[in-house]
Amino acid sequence: MTALSPALPLWEDTPVTHRFGVAMAMHANPYSGELIRAIRRAARRHGCEITLADTGDSVANEAAVIRALRADRVDGVLLVPAAGDDAVINGLVRMGVPTVLVDRMAGRNDVDQVGSENIQAVCALVRHLAGLRHRKIGFISGEEDMTTYEERALGYRLGLGRSGIRWTSQLVACGQSTPGGAAAATAKLLDSWPSPTALVVASEAMMIGVQYEAHRLGIRIGRDLAIVGYGDMEWAGQVTPAVTTMAQPIEEIGRKAVELLLARITDPERRPESVRLAPRFIHRQSCGC
């Protein structure tokens, strides 16, 4: 049986208008806790309760979690989808369950969704490195079957093109969206030819592996190798050198997700929206400037 966390209570004497299920992997990303808090604050402002359910970032667990939430008669679902979960999303859409995909957006237009803008954001990171006269800019990509990482890979190629740099597969390696995978991908790129002078890292979790591997090899980040990333980790501004990155608007994502779900409940026939919120560029020292 799938365990659900109890509905988070509102302030006393606050009438409950709706109860939402929040299905996500609680520890899949460094910002998972921040996203939960953002959703909770937004729900409170609208007089809503939320019930949390941990999917473990697994499609099988996700399906079980959704069944449990529906059995618990929630009014709608906020879902951070696991990779390859089209069947789960298809089922929610087919059954008419008010649903919003959060953070990890899917390449479809039949369901409401909200997340960070990826293409132009990564393009800007590449162009920042190119502006520092880097011509061999590598890319640590994420899982290939996720729209989020496909968009970030597209942004990398767009940034190269706008900087007059030719794309080459030798400067791209898949980090599997994990610290260990990113460490292996970094080692592969740095041991190959042409060896990159700069790296764009597609997620917070993979930045951990890139940092580890650079230190293991004795490479001085910001001097021997420029590094920029997507997602602002709590430690990003505390390490030496601090990490230049695009910070996702987590608070705004949580707020907009709740608003979209309320709009769907109010008007089930409204046209689905896909909302991409711009991240914020944080310039620190890891890029070498």
From TrEMBL:
One of its GO terms (molecular function) is transcription cis-regulatory region binding. The keyword Oxidoreductase does not apply. InterPro entries: LacI/GalR-like_sensor, Peripla_BP_I. It comes from the Bacteria. Keywords: DNA-binding, Repressor, Transcription, Transcription regulation. Gene3D superfamilies: 3.40.50.2300. Residues 126-287 form the Transcriptional regulator LacI/GalR-like sensor domain. CDD domains: PBP1_LacI_sugar_binding-like. This is LacI family transcriptional regulator.
